[in-house]
Protein 1
Amino acid sequence: MAAMKPRTGDGPMEAVKEGRLIIVRVPLEGGGRLVVSVNDEEAKELHRVLGTAVEAA
């Protein structure tokens, strides 16, 4: 039987390459994590959009 891990928002933001996808895990303020899988093209677009938002701030 697999070990159960608590689902908390603790821990760093991370992105790992798994096959053709990049899995992004973002801790949330209320607990838990937002997990998103994107391909290379989507990751580049996300990078561009986030960069634009950061520059505007």
Note: The helical segments are 40-56.
Protein 2
Amino acid sequence: MIPKAGAAYWMCRYTFAGKRRGMSLGKYSHLSLAEAREQWLRLRRRFVAVKTLLPSANVKKK
């Protein structure tokens, strides 16, 4: 992702429950493409383990 203002960063886009979502993986200058892909695979394995791609779904509701 290259914003109009600021530094470029790696972003993963996915669809969950019919809604398009996105998650930043890190700044382009600090992370190579291979590292960004590896990070996404690690996150994907973790999300599959808890059966959710929404970080907010892991927060307990009061």
Note: The helical segments are 33-50.
Protein 3
Amino acid sequence: MAENGSCCTPEGSCHTGGGTAVEVGAVTTTYKVTGMTCGHCEGAVASEIGELAGVSAVQAVAATGLVTVTSKAPLDEAAVREAVDEAGYELVGLA
């Protein structure tokens, strides 16, 4: 941790003890998905989206229906929709 008590280093890098590292140049997109009700649902959606090329992280939250995806470049929404459909849920669109 930086000496100033912040989680950020003087160079501007942020670290959250044990969290996911922030990728330089990464794109973060949040989608709204319906039908998720539990941890199993979250895992199914995250697993399918995680298989898309360029995806480095996926966080699905059933309680809110939000799925946050980090990727190297913007994803094709049709590909995300297909992945969510494959998991058995419905992509509403961007959140």
Note: The chain has two helices and four strands.
Protein 4
Amino acid sequence: MPSSIAWQKSSYSGGGDNNNCVELGCSSTFVQLRESATPAVTLTVTPHRLSGLIRTVKAGLHDVRSTDDRYHLGR
């Protein structure tokens, strides 16, 4: 993986330095994801696999079902 990837921070993170969020970086064949609080740890996937993950997340297939309020994601 090239070390000079330009990372893009999520627009949902807001401004400032203390707003940790997911960052995305692309190379010619891979997409890398990382948490801005721990930038040394990255997840590397192909664009095809990432689009599949996004599609299933949007469809709600990964929603946590619980009566515990700590696990209600946007509900």
Note: Residues 30 and 61 are 24 Å apart (CA to CA).
